Amino acid sequence: RIALLVNDVFSAYQASFRASIERAARRRNFSLLVFMGRELAHRDVNERAQNAIYDWISPEIADGALVLSGTIANFTDIAGMAGLCERLGAMPVVSIGLSIPGFAAVVLDNRSAQAVAVEHLIRQHRRRRIAYIGGPPSNGEASDRLSGYLDTLKRNDLAHDDRLISAGHFTLPTGREAMREILDRGVDFDSVVAANDHMAL
Length: 201
What we know:
The chain is of the alpha/beta class. It contains eight helices and eight strands. Helix 6 links the parallel strand 6 and strand 7. It starts with a strand and ends with a helix.
C-alpha cells in the first residue's frame, strides 16, 4: 500500500505523475492511496486547514509514501518539507521534485532544463531581452529554474535586468499577474520564458 501525497489531483502536471504511479502500482499488484491536501504554510488559512489529511497517513494504513514535494512546497522551504516527511513515521518516504536531507528523492535537473529553454531563444530566435516568469521564491525547483535563466544570460554575455523578472505560483492566474507586473514596468523585451506551462499560458 503506497500513499501518494499531492496538493491537486486535476492539474496536468500532477495528474500525469498520478497516472504513471497508478500504472506502476497496478503492474505490481500494489494499492495506491492518494492524499490530496494543499501547499504547506499556504497564506490562506482555509487552504492550510486541508493539510490535516497528511496527518492521517501512518504505517497502519500505508507501507510507504511518495511525496510530490515540488508542488507541496510552494509556500515553504526544505525544512518545512522535511518536517512533513518526518511526520510520516517509520515508513519509507521518497520525495519527488525536491532533495530533502535524510530521505530518498527523485529530482530533475531544473537548472539545466531551464537553461536549455533560454539557450533556444538566444540561439535559434536571436532573442536578447528575455523576460522571465519564475515560480515562488521559497520553492527549490523554482530557485533552480531562475538560476538556469541567469546562468544562460551570463554565459551569452547578456546582462540581466531585474525589471524583466517576476514570480508567480505555478498557476495560470499568477502567471498572468506576473506578466502584467513586467508590462507595467514599461521595459522592452523580445521574448518570454516561464518556469512552468501554466504560467507560460
